[in-house]
Amino acid sequence: MATRLADIAAKAGVSQATVSRVINAKPGVSDDSRDNVLEAITSLGMPLERLQRNGTRLVAIITPDLSNPIFPEYITSLTTLLAQRGFLVIVCTYTPSGTSEDGYLAMLQNQPLAAAIFLAGKYDTKDTGLSTYRSLSERNIPSAFLNGAARDMNGLYAGTDDKTAMTMALRHLRDLGHRNIGLLLGDKNHYPTILKYQAAQQFFLDEHILHNEEMTAWTTYGVESGQMAARALIERGATAIACASDQLALGAVKATSSLGLSIPKDISVTGYDDSPAMRYMSPSLTTVRQPVDKICQSTVNGLMAMMENKKLATRRDVLLFEPELIVRESTGRCSSR
């Protein structure tokens, strides 16, 4: 992971604001503090000239808590790509009990940002205000919003094609003979979830598969919530469950086991993300893989273009990438239990 502003500040024994002032040759820093910061930057392998080249070289990544293992994968890819271009990355992780997305944006207001990248946020949810992002647009800071392209707001939107992802999972389950397929989805107002649901409804219609609403469960993302919702789907007769995340799929696996059933003999389960550990669980999870590296590469390339031409930051661009179905051990032929 790239050296972060916080790493330099910790090593130099100063605040992150002081590090920023030194990097950008701003006044208000004592000689001792400046020397400490410069020494810390050098020792961490990030030459000052790389930070100063072409002006500001700070990029903020704003993300929810990292309990979802796909977020660290995005952060690792993004910070690696940005570090190769000489950018210093600030990773801002917000939690319900800590600093909020709004709080981080307020703190970043006085930072000389080159760009901002969001892994999730208010932009990916219906009926939420977008004023929180106004400070970035007012400063013409290039911004990228990952996996949430439904909002009418300027910026670069990059992510996985959610409709294709759900269709892939359902087609796989249909080919295995499943007809009583449960949908285990996230929040009803979450745009990626909405797109998956719409794709599922279209798939069932096209394939002439009867799908009652009681076979769709909406819940919060997480293993525990997924377990409770999946148990209800199994009790209603589901022989397979298509999940909107790997975390929900893990919950479905736990629910199956708690009912004395086995995977995939009794219940087939598909996930979404292909988080790093999914291939090592038992049974290994059939899931739809997000093309994380492609998304991150395109995001960084897009931000570079926006930095070169600020007019690009005043429009809305959407980049959707094809997912890949990864078939493992958690799906099998329908046993019609």
Describe the protein in words.
With 337 residues, the protein is of the alpha/beta class. Helix content is 40%, strand content 18%. It has 12 helices and 12 strands. It has helices spanning 5-12, 16-23, 31-43, 48-52, 70-84, 101-107, 134-138, 162-175, 191-206, 223-235, 246-258, 292-308; strands at 58-64, 88-94, 113-118, 143-146, 155-160, 181-185, 216-218, 240-243, 268-273, 286-289, 316-321, 324-326. The strands form 2 sheets. The protein has a 6-stranded parallel β-sheet with strand order 2-1-3-4-5-11, with helices on one face. Strands 7-6-8-9-10-12 form a 6-stranded mixed β-sheet, with helices on both faces. α9 links the parallel β6 (181-185) and β7. α8 crosses α9. The radius of gyration is 22 Å and the shape is elongated.
SSE blueprint:
Elements lengths: L4 H8 L3 H8 L7 H13 L4 H5 L5 E7 L5 H15 L3 E7 L6 H7 L5 E6 L15 H5 L4 E4 L8 E6 L1 H14 L5 E5 L5 H16 L9 E3 L4 H13 L4 E4 L2 H13 L9 E6 L12 E4 L2 H17 L7 E6 L2 E3 L11
Parallel strand pairs: 1-2, 1-3, 3-4, 4-5, 5-11, 6-7, 6-8, 8-9, 9-10
Antiparallel strand pairs: 10-12
> What is the β-strand count?
12
The number of helices is 12
State the major sheet: 6 strands, parallel
Overall, the morphology is elongated
Structural class: alpha/beta
Mean pLDDT: 90
Q: Into which percentage range does the β-strand content fall? A: 15-25%
Q: Give the helices and strands as they follow along the chain.
A: HHHHEHEHEHEEHEHEHEHEEHEE
Report helical residue fraction: 25-40%
First and last CA, distance: 48 Å
Largest sheet: spatial strand order: 2-1-3-4-5-11
Low-confidence sequence ranges: none
Which oligomerization state do the chains in this entry correspond to?
A: single chain
